[in-house]
Amino acid sequence: MAIDPLDGSSNIDVNGSIGTIFSIYRRVSPIGEPPVLEDFLQGGEEQVAAGYILYGSSTILVYTTGNGVAGFTYDTSLGEFILSHPKIKSPKDGTIFSYNEGNLNKYDVRIQNYLSECRNRNYSSRYIGSLVADFHRNLLKGGIYLYPPTDKDPKGKLRLMYECYPLAMIAEQAGAKASDGQQRVLDIKPESLHQRVPFYIGAEDMVKELMKGLR
Q1: What is the pLDDT of residues 91-139, one digit of tens each?
Q2: Least buried of 8, 55, 66, 79, by fewest C-beta within 10 Å?
Q3: Contact assessment for residue 189 and residue 195, using Cβ atoms and an 8 Å cutoff
Q4: Are the C-beta atoms of 197 and 184 separated by less than 8 Å?
Q5: What is the CATH number of domain 96-214?
């Protein structure tokens, strides 16, 4: 298992939404022996399952095993997760864009142009600062999340193994898309456990439009 136990941890002190992101792989080393690095560096397509838990106004688990996406809401009276969002399908297009506006001037001019076009279309800017929370909203309502590279983080800031792979699997299973600006996230070859990449994820048409502008 690869896991980001507290995504959006900077929100904890202000009671903002946070989450947990995870993915599961079949081990390649012999069972009964200590795991090895190759058990983890298998690539996004080798994920057996992926999911996230969002701790917000309610606690929800969103999960896929490669056959669609389902959401389960925690029922405090029963102490169990109840299926609340069967067969999640993300809208093909959307009107929400999520990014850290404080970094806007540090982004590639092509990213700035795309964001300017979103504003010209009167799209809604929504950014919580918790990847899980922003992704969950856009998954259900239709939107795009962007974390482009900057001079400070030229290779991107989000971690491929713990954040990008699992959310990319969920996105694709729900009909959305995920890219690093050049290729499909699930096609990226992992090189290290803490590898970081640029990340663009969300409604299919919105991601396609952004990728077209980056070519």
Answers
A1: 999 999 999 999 999 999 999 999 999 999 999 999 999 999 999 999 9
A2: 79
A3: no
A4: no
A5: 3.40.190.80
